[in-house]
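Hi all, long-time lurker, first post. I run a small reading group and we've been trying to get comfortable going from sequence to structure in the token notation. Rather than ask abstract questions, I figured I'd post a concrete chain and ask someone more experienced to write out its structure so we can walk through it together at our next meeting. Sequence below, copied exactly:
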Amino acid sequence: MHKSRLFLSLGTAVITVGLFIFTAACQRKTNDTLTNADDNGGYASDHAKMEQNSNDVVSIADAAAATNSGSGVDLRTTATTISGCATVSRSVTPGGDSILTIDFGTTDCTCADGKNRKGSIIVNYSGRYKDNGSTHTITYSNYFVNDNQLTGIKTVTNMGTNATGQVYYTVNVNDTLNLGTGNGEIVWSGTRTRTWLTGYTTTERSDDSYLIAGTTSLTRANGNTFTMVIGTPLQVAYGCAWIEAGTVTVTRPSGVSATLNYGDGNCDSEAQLTIGSHTYNITLK
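-- Answer (accepted) --
Happy to help. Here is the structure in token form:
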């Protein structure tokens, strides 16, 4: 009788340990791989695309305003070439506002930063473009970057300089990036603070970099919406297709948060995503 009980106890222990090992193995397998397409580089890649496109457009508008002294100025012939493709013209509305039209033409042109562009960026502003407190509104006309169409509106306000002497702007953005036939679109809205980190005092765009802060809502092509709150300011630079540094807290549709870390300043497509106690290496697309 005692032997039977001992055997039963040992058997139960073996089964219990076996179940524990099996369960732990399943947990490790689940935690080692991101199977959700949203988490596995999805919203991180979309966020990086929208940040880069937004900053790029504002930067192009800045360069055009700095270069333009009248109508018909071709940016290909200036020291502050913004693209190798665009022609800038200036007009004045009956109310006295200035309009810059940055025209990339009707067919793809490979610009100085390696991106293909066509269509126009339109900048409407009052007074002097770079004055403290000046506001300009940016819209688009059939504007494409690498075959993706950007539509929407941005309102950019020059806030002057911060406590460390850096020029910064507030940017209210409502943009949509159409990814082409059958691929849907990314919708993005929110408020940013855009601080000029390097390159403000030079005429070259190649040394321009910025710090971005703020909160946005991002809706992916699959309809899932995410709230993105920047923790450590994002660093973006001319000539880099990726966000180089910074962190973002992402609230997913489930209500659970994750943290994106874009790195420490290198221009690469690698990032890290932390969900709970687990951190994953992801590749931006």
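A couple of things your group might point at:
The first helix runs from residue 2 to 32.
The mean pLDDT is 83.
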